[in-house]
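Morning!

This is the sequence you dropped in the shared folder:
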Amino acid sequence: MLNTRQHLVVRSTGLTKRYGNAEVVSGVGLEVPARQVYGFLGPNGAGKSTTMKMLLGLTRPTNGSVEVFGEPFSPGRTLARVGSLIEQPSFYGHLTGRENLDIVRRVKHLGAASIDQALDTVGLSHAANKQARNYSLGMKQRLGLAMALLGEPELLILDEPTNGLDPSGIHEIRELITSLPASRGITVMVSSHLLSEIEQMADTIGIISHGHLLYQGPLSALAEAGHIVVRTRPEQAVPTAQTLAAQGWRVSSVQDGEIIMPAYDDDHVARLVTTLVTAGTSIYRVELRRRSLEQIFLDITEQAPPQGQPSTQQQPPRGAPHQPAHVRQAPVQRQSTPSQAPAPGYPGAQGPRRAPARPVPTYTQAAYQDPAQQTAYQGMRRVGA
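The structure's back. Tokens below.
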């Protein structure tokens, strides 16, 4: 779980959508924390737009439920507090930006002052009296955001708001979105297939592929999913890995004199170095290697089941805290070094009586876990499938 119920603005349970025999969204369980930017990340066709339409009542779910602001979704009550921009914004080209906003303002029964406030928020006041047909693509996106912001919504749902923009337009929209939680107290849920955009905007992310929500959690948690590399003499690497495993340390693999281990904090790295020195190991280097969001994203989405097929229940690793039934442990992630793919290595042992297993080509998930039974980092989780 990401947070307690009272701190979640959006919560979906088992959200599913089928068109005939095609299941395009499969049991999605979203949890969007208040006053954050939630990045909804996935390839084109992954189910992002369909999911957002279900959250807004534009598409009826086949199964599942949606809660917004802690209450079951109700079109009249819920949408009065929500602004949205799904796909491309539409305007009357012969009307000015102000006149287009005035139409929406009247439909929402808002005061005339709301127009100037929305224009000022998106930085479009200078072009308010210009015909919409003469707006640049970036200005049209800003006008769409101004429409979504009319009436001071508490939640803003944006589907690919930077799609088609030039770098300058992308930067402008990104700066606006990231400012809204702090400046206006607005929770923003924004979808994108652009990894770099979500990485620069979001506090919390959800990754969807083939209709399955494969991960959601703090972006910082994914950024921390690295591994420790201990560089030693090649002939010492395997015996040292066996010694560490026998003492309860987790060893992911061994390759060319490098012992790959899950990421530990500074205190445990210090204890690790002490253990190695005591064992007489020649230590050349101990470093933390992290993966980019792109690497993590590709690893996660490659593990997605085909569209319409259920996710496979994964067992949590030994020693991991108990998780609720609806939170599933995602597949073991591959962690490669920056310049080369993973190679077969020593996979480690769980205790002193276990003999070394045969080499395997993958690493275990990154976790803070050692003989002191430190709480494990949960890493990749398949959620709500």
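Headline: DSSP finds eleven helices and 17 strands in the chain.

More detail when I'm at my desk.
O.
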